[in-house]
Fold these 4 entries.
Entry 1:
Amino acid sequence: MVETTVLARAIRRNAVQMVRRAKASHIASALSICDIVAVLYGRVLTINPAMPKAADRDRFILSKGHGCVAVYAALAECGFIAKEDLLTYGQDHSPLMNHISHKVPGVEFSTGSLGHGLPFGTGKALAAKRMKAAWKTYVLLSDGELGEGSNWEAMMFASHHGLDNLVAIVDYNKLQSLTTVDKTLRIEPLAAKFSAFGWSVQEVDGHDHAALATALGSAPWAPGRPSILIAHTTKGKGVSFMENRVEWHYRTPSTEQLAQALNELQEQSHA
Amino acid sequence: MRNAFVEELVELAAIHDHIALVVGDLGYSVVEPFADRFPDRFINAGVAEQNMTGLAAGMASEGYHIFTYSIANFPTFRCAEQIRNDVDYHQLPVTVVAVGGGLAYGALGYSHHAVQDYALMRSFPNMLIAAPGDPMEVRACMRYLVAHPQPSYLRLGKAGEPNFHSAVPEVQPGRWLKVADSQHSADGKRTLLSTGATLGIAMDWRNAPEYEQHSVYSLPLWSMASKAEQVAAAKKFDEIVTLEDHLVDGGFGSWMMEAIVGKPGVGARIVVHALKSDVCGTVGSQSTLNTLGGLGMS
């Protein structure tokens, strides 16, 4: 079994390089979820890179599709795609689009418009129940995304139908496009909201691999109820000048900034 | 048409285990035969069309052919992006069913008038529009859609439309179905071409002096992909009069014009009869509003 902290560092290194190469945005959104993605791909998900469409695989949906470089990097590190494929990210005609794309082996669903992943995942979870299949569906959402009403429609549906094979994770980094979540459209009390919608709720440090693995690996936490993990994260995690800075939702690192980012990530690997 | 839809759906679901029906809390006295017989494959998603369509796509991605069902604009415009991104882009077998196409819910007001739905659906590259003209065409479309699972839109009338075909016809995307010869055809070069529930109006207009030399065709299955086939069909005619209970903009006649105008060998004059925008914001019976919109009976 892969060491997930090693995997997370590899994902971060790839992510900053991909975004720099493609002159793309959303690096901070991707860095925010690298630990969650590493724990999912390294420990939690039942998946096989040799059979990306295996019937009994777990389904993972990245609803915050703009964080896609983290998932593309994980797919490359885990053998679903070649590491060289990452070089095509954002290039003309590449399947590795700047929002997560189902044209990439191992990706279940394309997103980019927010509020689509949870209803789609709810349909998968319902299908699994009706087919008496054992696999689970995991959906990773952003915090700002919770402004989309479709998520709350899906939450009502999933709890009403007892979809305990559905696990949602909220990347709660408290920043969205222009400013903080709190100043934009307040979502607190978040745990109480989810609980009131009939979900089983846990909260963790979204960069603590052991806590993530324990929580995600033990779902469902209550029979007959869907599970939602509030993962408290830092936007831009791992690169000091990107952490908690709203501008890194959009900015592309310069050559010098990329070098600094890679240095910092290298130092963390020796820590 | 509604009854033909649910009867056919029950018959098809008895054969195909992967057919399921997801409704948006509508279909009282329509969907019960399906719900009673296939409770495991009937889901009322509640008044939540975005989730209804998203979860339909999710189920379809696991092997189901999902029929979503609601009335007028609720299963289309309310969840347009779910249809665009989740269903059409992923090329999943979800059939969006809207009952009450056109002005069928005339008295219920603009919210319930489905007069822009073709415009929405024909803009999606993988979407097949099924707009049957009578209950026989409903059955034909249903059988085609189940045999050829893909993103699709089924637009149903609800006025107790009569049958114009004597049997269930063979249908193909883009293929014109002959429904009636002209009353006094000199050369068979003129036709009334309808899609959807205006077939009854076309059959009525055929009896008017103005159209006594026109045959009547129905085109129940059409799409972006079947545009190219229209040139060959149009070459047979000198005049094509299209009918639809939809606004002109983005509608069936516009689609046909885009398909044939300026194409080599097509000499047909095309006359588009669609609803004038005067119907928007006006209430009345379906026939009253159709007349106001320019689709009155002869």
Entry 2:
Amino acid sequence: MSSQRPLLRKVLKTRCPRCGRDIVVEVNERILMEARNNPLGMAGIVEMHGDHAAVVYVDRNGNERGVRVYPVLAKGAEEYTVFTLPSASLENFYNIGGFSLTLKKLRMMIRAGLQEEGVTLRASKGEAVLELDFKRDFSWSTVKRFTWILVDAVSTSYSENPNDYLNAVKLLDVVLREPQFFYSKDVFWLVTNASTITMKTRLPEAMLFRKYRPSMLFERYDTRFLLRVAETPSEPVSKLLRSDNPHVVYSRADALLAMYKRGIIDLVVE
Amino acid sequence: MSVELYHDAFFLLFPDLKKTADAVIEEAEAGMPVPQEALEWARRVKTRIDNLRDDMAVASRRLNGVTIPIEFQELEEVSRYGFTALKRRLVSGDDKYHVFFNEISYETRLFRSAFTSLSTRAAETLNGNISLVVEINDAAPLLAVKVASRSTSKAKVVVADAVDVYGSDAIRGIQSDYIKKYLLDGEVLRIDEASEYEGKADLVAFTFIDAWRYGFRKLFAAARRLLAPGGVLAALLPLNSREGLRTILWAWGVTEFLDVDELRKIVRSQGYVDPSLRVYGPFVALMATAK
């Protein structure tokens, strides 16, 4: 049976804010499905413009939600910008000995502590490939499950900041140690996009949230963090998540998503 | 403050409800996309409030000189937000604000007192032996997870939704979050798919607007089917037989009207024993045992 092209729903025309070039993108069922599955209800369509990539964000209704430009340092079409992180960045890792993450659409490769012969697991989804080396043995089903969730989240990520991906791998390392701890694709996605997203509080929701303090959130997350978010009009998510402790990063990302799901904050790509 | 004065005070919210209806109509007249159902809702609300103008005037006179307590001021504040959430739900189908409205309502003084009383008494009655708790049609199943968290063994929580609530991804996602975040086992399903749990629940709960919209008699009957013999029903219900709260809840689609006598009658006729009713302003916390 021949493969079918995704059904075309809409053609969007916009302009690159960096070089002014016209951008014409096709919104099809696959893009809409990606937006429906995304925590913020958005999907990005990448167009390469020489030294930069323009990403057109589309919501679940197929409407444009902004264009963001990312620098692409590679000179040739086949070249990747390689970020080799210092081995010190992995010193607190318990399970993962090294990793390599390739993001084809952004032509980025991030490597840390991975030897050529050290790859024990390779997971790929769309245009993301994650290779991992482990320090110890543990349940294969656990590794596979959480690694797949991470690579699935990364495949729809557009951050050019290697630290966002390092933080996501840090979370994976913790998940593998404590698999009973509930982690989700949405958390991985927010962490891997932290540098590209800004939190904005909504009124009157933030005011009512501070006043009535819903049990579900105030019993499950750090009260000081929740109040700090609700009292801040606008702040980059990367700044809100900043912590050396991956448990704290996870908890804060989860708390932000919980606030977003209730309309207390907006998470916008800027 | 007496129950009667609470009802009079709810008339104070009529102008805000009418403004919400006006806003829906204005959006439609300005050519913005407004579903027909939302527009019809707005017209019905306007007509009903216009028809109650004389009752509003009488209620205002009765309230003259009455100090409105903080308990009502909180209900007033969250209800105003609830109208905004209701408009967004009707016009754009976005339920996340409705969930938030549920959650902040639970934190008002009256609701918190009723919730604390219900969860404490239910856990004591069951003596920690709780293996299955079912919450019917509440966007935020707080009472079920609170009671299940007090089980001496790991209790399962099932959220049984009517079709319209189950059909909302936003609400279903939040309901699942409640189960996961309180580290419980469980599932969210449609109430007509809950037959495997019939006769097995140690506790059935329902507490807020989405449940009330389902209909009081249907709620009691569904709970009775789900409860094991000796199982406990824990519910928060509105005393909305009087005008005031009656129209406010009607705007949300609550079309049955209860007072304490009617409630007792329903409970008895549905096969419950030892009903215990505690009144919290215009609401009543009910506990009863299945025969």
Entry 3:
Amino acid sequence: MKVSLNWLKDFVDLPTNEPEELGAVFASLGHELEGIEILPRSFDGIVVGRVETIVPHPNADKVRLCTVITTGDPQEIICGAWNFEVGAVVAVAVPGASLDNGDFKITQRDIRGITSNGMICSSKELGLGDDQEGIMVLDRNTPIGSDFADLVALPDAILDLTITPNRGDAMSMLGLARELAAYYDTDVKLPSVDVTEGGEVFDMPVTIEDGEDCNRFLARRVTGITMGESPLWMQQRLAAAGVRSISNVVDISNYVMMELGQPNHTFDYDKINGNMIQVRRAVTGETLKTLDGVERELTPDDLLVADADGPSSLAGTMGGADSEVSATTTNVLVESAAWNPPTIMRMSRRLNLRSEASARFERGVDVNLPELAANRVACLLGEICGGTVSPGTVDVVAKSVEPWTVKLPLTLVKRVLGLDLAPNEVAKLLSRLNLVATGQDELSVVIPTYRRDLTRPIDLVEEVARLYGFDNFPDTLPSGPGGGLSAQQVRLRKMRTVLSSAGVSEAQTFSFHGAAAFEKLGLSADDERQSAINVRNPLREEESLLRTTLLPGLLQSIGFNTRHGIKSVALYEIGKVFYNEDSPEFGVIPNQPDHFAFALIGDEGGEGMYETGREVDVYSGTSIVRALADRMGLGEVTFATISEMPLHPGRAAEVFVGDKRVGIVGELHPTVASNWELEGRVVVGEFDLEPFIDDPGLWQFTEPSIYPHVDFDLAFELDVAVSSGAVVGAIRTAAGLVLETVAVFDEFSGGNLAEGKKSLALHLRLRDAHKTLSQEEVAPTRQACIDAVEQLGGVLRGA
Amino acid sequence: MIQALRNLQTSAPEVIAAANTLEQLATVEQAMTGQGSPIQQARTGMRNLPNEDKPAAGKQLKETTGVVQGLLQKRRADLALAAENEKLKTDTVDITLPGVQRRVGVPHLLTATMAEVSDIFTGLGYRVAEGPEVETGWYNFDALNTPSDHPARAESDTLYVDYGDPEDEMLLRTQTSPMQARYMQDHEPPVYVVVPGRVFRTDTLDPTHSPVFHQIEGLAVDNNITFSDLKGTLAHFAREFFGEGTKTLFLPHFFPFTEPSAEMHVSCFNCEGTGARCRVCGGSGWIEILGCGMVDPNVFEAVGYDADKVSGFAFGMGVERLAMIRHGLTHIKHLYENDQRVVRQYR
């Protein structure tokens, strides 16, 4: 909300004029300062002129050629704004003038073949506001040729504040003046509202269908007004507040809204049919053409002000075009009402009509404000538009609100704020906000009706803290019961370290993807990963399904890198997947376990100096799993071949820890790789995270043997179908405790080997914990190993 | 005989020193101690000496043998070392070649930042909890004093999912705060916990917004937690995270789940408030970092705590924002594309 300091000072005497200081005060009270604009102090070369003629520019469609009288002969000026007609009084920057604090010099300029002798100014060009679509049209009584500088109220500064949603009462000059008055411990000055009445008594039957929708509806009539421009002082203040000047009547309505915080509406009284008003919900099928010229279809969610013929305006949101004040209006009906915040919020959101009025009604306006506001509007219509205020006020109160009392125990102030304040100290702080507090240990605090946000003791604690000053609280540290990471969290960090040392970098990818991802993975129709949860309101199709697998995100990231010339990439991600089944832990929400997945492409070692010349393959994946199993103490990991999309049918495995299946690893099926536009082998793995970070218990020390080892190699010819894992397993069982290590060091087929056969060479190391092994002990162990492999169809080679 | 040994002992140092290779030394050794040498002759001649001369001759033999063997051994070691050094002179490399480097993986900047923040709080005695990302409307909003007509619950702000009973308003959590409610339901006070995690909003990707982002939430509930504790705790965090001299400014704000509420600003670590065109603070000298406040009694009520007995504070901050302003990232997308040219910059 933009606030002119000059305007604010109508309501409160301030000890300082420094905008920065006042901005900091507002911020310290919770009204965030977004910026400060210092209004220009000089309008040299800006004079008041009158538009004498307007003709189209012969060579341009979007601008018009005007002649304007200022001090001498009429001058031709080309203008791109269309919101004025012949006779309009305007601010003219003549050649030599400078705008924008001197940054913008006005000169005679050729615009498409015609010389423009200056510029007709908008409020933005004058530095008075934001509006640059229309020029500033001045009151017709402004003396032509006078210096604009003599007419504007300067200097001024505009503070841009953000008002939090709980503080509807602060969305006005009066409301913000109250805040400053509280800060400086002074009083606000209310505007003078001295209504002079005359003419016929005004009366009009008003019915309110539902008092919840409309707590109060108040109307006054002003007759005999003259439509025209509002005075410059008013235009200047509205411009500062970011409100465009429309006409004197509309400007007055907006001015009072900005001033008091009460949005109000002015109808052309003579266009109210049947001299009656109904406040009611719309009926399906009803329509209303609003001020912006849009014909709107209404629903029973919409609240209307209607006359005998139907809808006249959308309550608190936007007026109707038919009852709008126009150049011919002479009698005005002023509506000042209290609407239900949620009703206005729903309606303005549904119709996408957010206005200064709806912003205030959504936050809530004081039910006791409409009378003051209507009288203020009526007064100004009298003073500025020459109208006569009719005696009589129509005031229908469906739901009255009186000041309420909130009990504030001092123990609450002490517990939440840590402040040891005496009852009179708290009462003194609250009194600065016009909150009257009485009592001792428990204060009874009377809340003025404009502070709708103060209903509970804690609300008052906040007010005490605000006025005490957040800066004045000391900084202390509580002492808790002790904390730290859980065992699983520590293990997760360790796991990340292991992955880093294995050369794999961490990725973060979005938690959703489009339906195409499953297709590109080649998942079968009955694959349970296809049963993903829909996002109901995604902004893009690519965000429409919650991931059931981390692979799409990783493959997309791998692809991003290869497309950018980085051909060797190793990524992992740890994150949640979402299953279409209830969570075993939390009940009604979906099961959303953490997964761990990786994807590798290109050279095993990486690019450049990391390059090993070996392309990744399935073993690059299994080695990561083995490294993790080893360092994380998972126990024995085994691999069993599977044939399942998206993996290569011959180069993929299910992974088991003990007999528990924990995930899959393998090369991508070549078709899947090409679906993701990836070249060469792509290795992926995806696992439940839990088995990796579950606590396996403390490891215990094993005394290294002091006795010598015995090493020997064995090579076997085997059917290719016999896995090395089976051979190693058989040897482990056969050799027993004296076996220290067994490792495959060579595997090949072809050569002199028969079709369907392979050679497998293993290195064994034996060592006894308690004695030196003798040849008599080694020989039978070696033989037992050979026998065990022969059971698998192996034949010892080179024996 | 004794004289011959003495002569040998006298000449040996010079002769041995004159041997410049191991081969020459071997010849010298042979001449001094081998067949026909004075030492060898003395050994064989010993038995022919009269008994009374034997002790003197034996003594001389032992002395000469010791001296000669010592000199030979020393010279042999010197020559071997010289030969080794000579050989090493030719065994040289271009030390600027990279060799084969072993690639080390990089943790993600967001993970690293969340760990860094968590560690500051575990140092203060907090635990770390994580919670579900698909939540019910009750945990994400109602339990946090956010009524059903609150604008944040509109589809324009919150991503909803089709799951279970529509009454439950299943959604992607818009904040890590629902874990506050779950944690309090599961733990009696005192509670000191931080919750890092992933959150979601109906946002289009732009330099500072993403439909997926991360927050860290914090909650302290105990018998006598005060607003001063909130300030002191977060000021400590700011100094740990942004540097020792960091100042903090708490400005009143509004959040449905805390009262009083505040926004914490920290003094700019980049320009220390001096740079009119500072990229980080825009010249104001202050950076808004997090929202915080004293837990609203309605939240305590929703989770079954006695608001007349306990008090507490809560805070929440955006992880992307912390990481981006600290390291100068220009677009939030850089945190989700996993571009290795970006990732390798993380330190």
Entry 4:
Amino acid sequence: MSQRTESERSLDSETLLSVRNLSTRFFTEEGQVNASESVSFDVRDNEVLGIVGESGSGKSVTALSLIDLIESPGRVTGGEVWYREPDLAEEFRARDGVSVEGDHVDLRTVPESVRRALRGPSFSMIFQDPMSSFNPSITVGEQIAEAVEVQRRARANPRSTRSRTQGYGFARYLVDTLVPGRGYVTESSKERAIELLEQVGIPDPAERADEYPSQFSGGMLQRAMIAQALAGEPDLLVADEPTTALDVTIQAQILNLLRDIQAERGMSIILITHDLGVIARMSDRINVMYAGEVVERGRLEDIFENPVHPYTQGLLGSIPDLQNPQPRLQPIEGNVPSLFDSEMGDGCYFADRCPKAMKSCLEKPPQRPVEGSEEHTAKCVLADRSYDPSEAISGEEVHE
Amino acid sequence: MISPRVLRNLKKEFRSSHLAKLGLVLVVAVLLVAAFAPLVAPHNPTAQNLDQSKLPPVGFAQTSTETTSKMVNGSIQTVENTTVIEPDLAHPLGTDGLGRDMLSRVIYGARTSLMVGVLGTLLAVLIGVPVGLVAGYYGGSVDDALMRVADISLAFPSLVLAIALIGLWGRATYSIPDPFVVAGLTPAMPEASTLPVTVVVVVGLVNWVWFARVARGEALSLRSEEYVKAARALGASDGRIIWRHVLPNAVTPIIVLGTVQIAAIILLESSLSFLGFSGTTLSWGFDISQGRDYVSSGQWWIATMPGLAIMLSVIGINLLGDWLRDALDPDIEGEGGA
């Protein structure tokens, strides 16, 4: 099985984050929903990893599972999240129950408090809808300054896990807010917040910092959210549909801004979107997701020039081509399949919509390497053979 | 929370609503009267003067007819003596059966009612809001457990529960020295006000459920807000999120409920005093229960005056609550608001 070889692949020093077989399920009253299933990918230093797929394909769930923000009734049911953090690896090397390999630590095995402490300085996230991502009753500047302050306090004493979570705690926060003369947010954090606002291109940052979110436009708020996400100087920024709620001109500005900041700080970005245009513009490598699984992965040029999985081909086929306009776009027929555990078959999940379904698609295809590029793999029987019309089956046959 | 927009709404709503003005006038009047009771009251509310008992309020001269029977020459003769009891201007609202000045008693009664109303509501907020926020924020089994407790305490009629708790704990009271008397400004007045501690605790325990329910509902909708998720993604703890992001945005309905609850608790306190459970003898409810005996014999004012005081203060607080709700509720915010 190639999945095994995948999880046995060693962690090299350029891998910032390695996600292996991460599965997240939602336990609803109607049944179990497999929102993401055995998702594996690596994020290297200083790269933009694109995750693309239709609505409901498990992109956001994967991102949220990664930084442990899945809420009930959802739960991460399995998998490993290896993160490179030499200090943490040193601290936990001898600890029972915590998996450490070289400089990498499996975050699924460390205590929740450690994972929380990593949110902010290690991972940060920006969300789809900037309008609702700020607390309407606190000024934008104060919210960013607070994020700066939290990280600053955490960094002031990075030795042990215990002290790493200090300054996050509620008791400390109560004392700081209630005791006069001990404001939680210091002047220098406020100045830093204004600096961050300036970096993300907000004019008059000092004045805008004192305004409430309702006084900002959508594009400005998205910038402010990026500023807030940068407050902890994260190694990895997860951008979940960062431009979907914005109009096209603002989209371009935000994407350029993300690109610039990524290059300047040398951080990595996981970019989640359904927009192939955004992916093409931003990503170094791409994961294509369908029905909770990564169905094809590769470098940008692998995916765009030599797509193997019929789903990827379908996605690319549904983009209008300005050079050779077609009278009609080629959409993928049908809808995303039900993710209820009871309704998911044994075969390839895409088979019933697939124009190239064959008999062998009734069994689950493993992730296989595609010839011509060492990083290109696809979860499809077509990865190492070509379509044979004599074996073709129809969508109805798949269901039987 | 208190942003310029909120202040603007409050002003706008206040200008357009006469009821809001009435409510504010009533509440401010009750507050001032309660605060400066020793200066406002014409007499010591506890001083008895049996010579001047049962004086009617000004404007209500009382004629009492006394019928005496005499045996005259073997037959019974009835003699009717009609006496007119004139009101005394020194006692504008009359006096009670022991000759205590009703006006002074009503003024001092405001202290008890307001103390119990405000402190009881505060206690209910302190218990109910954290419980509700935790239940709503965490959801799941935590929510189920806390809200079932709330449902159970809601299933008891509040008066019965209050009486049961007072029966269990007794009537503890605490004497608060009157600053005006301590300062020597009004030596003739009572030296201390009695705070019925048990009643405060009991009304708090009876009414926390309402705050828990409102806070839970708010937390439930606020926890799925994107900014709560964003705060978690930035490493904020649950406590910080509840304190900083959930509570401030849930505060409006809690304030509105708080004003309504003060009125409800004043009524509950009066009921408890009326039934003799409060531990203080200087409260509106207590005076009503004393006056009840005199209603049938024509001295209606002894029960009516404190009753009017309860009515006016409860109406005032409710009108104020309506104003706050109309002004703070984002649903009816905006230009063409109702």
